[in-house]
Amino acid sequence: MLKPNPKGDYPIIHETAFVDETAIIVGNVRIGANTFVGPLAVIRADESESCVAIGKNSNVQDHVIIHAHAGTSAEIGESVSLAHGCVVHGPCLVARDCFIGFNAVIHTAELGEGVFVGHSSTIATTSIPKGKKIPHASLVDTLEAADELPDTSVKEKKLAEKIVQANHVLVSGYRVLEGNPRESS
Predict the structure, then answer these.
(1) How many angstroms separate the Cα of 107 from the Cα of each of 3, 66, 84, 89, 148?
(2) What is the residue range of 82's domain?
(3) How much is the pTM?
(4) CA distance 27 to 11
(5) Positive or negative, the Cα torsion across 101, 103, 105, 106?
(6) Is the confidence at residue 180, as pLDDT, over 70?
(7) What is the pLDDT of residues 62-101, one digit of tens each?
(8) Could you give the 3-state DSSP secondary structure of residue 14?
(9) Alpha carbons 61 and 17: distance in angstroms, whole number
(10) CA 145 to CA 124: how far, in whole Å?
(11) pLDDT confidence of 176, banded at 50, 70, 90?
(12) Do the Cβ atoms of 83 and 136 come closer than 8 Å?
């Protein structure tokens, strides 16, 4: 379901993206090329002067919620995986190649390139440097805690890449089922 916000801003979705018919996308939302938006995802930029931008080749899986407060943005980079049930709430920035695990919460935070967020973790009011790992069920809400994080392992980087590739296959497959086999870019 695509809806305008009260100001009249309407979502803009790249023609090669796939958005499940049960997803709800409202307002000043931009979704990039070859991006997958799964069932029951909610992406809202409906408050005054808010926006959500999702880069190409990313995936927003089932039950993910992305929202931005008035006057803020939620920016999702290229090749990012937002796993089932996570919440990304602006103001925030999730740089390219990040993985956000099941039921994780990102709020008023900046994640550098290649950050791996474990399942059920919360990152709030801080910045996470490039290439760091947040272990499962962690709370990171200070710069001191962020500075103590381990680096993302090769295994975790490969898992993140594998999930992005799996979602590319879904985008292509769903487009064929819809009778519209547009090429991925």
Answers:
(1) 24, 10, 17, 5, 19
(2) 2-177
(3) 0.94
(4) 5
(5) positive
(6) no
(7) 999 999 999 999 999 999 999 999 999 999 999 999 999 9
(8) coil
(9) 13
(10) 11
(11) confident
(12) no
Q: Tell me the one-letter amino acid at 47.
A: E
pLDDT of amino acid 185: 44
183 alpha carbon, distance to own chain's centre: 22
Is 138 within a domain? Answer: yes
Residues 6+ apart with CB under 8 A from 108: 89, 90, 91, 92, 124, 125
Q: Are 33 and 57 in contact (CB under 8 A)?
A: yes
Element holding 91 (H helix, E strand): strand 87-94
Counting the structural domains of the chain, the total is 1
| CATH number where 71 lies | 2.160.10.10
How far apart are alpha carbons 62 and 144 in whole angstroms? Answer: 33
Cα–Cα dist 21/78, whole Å: 23
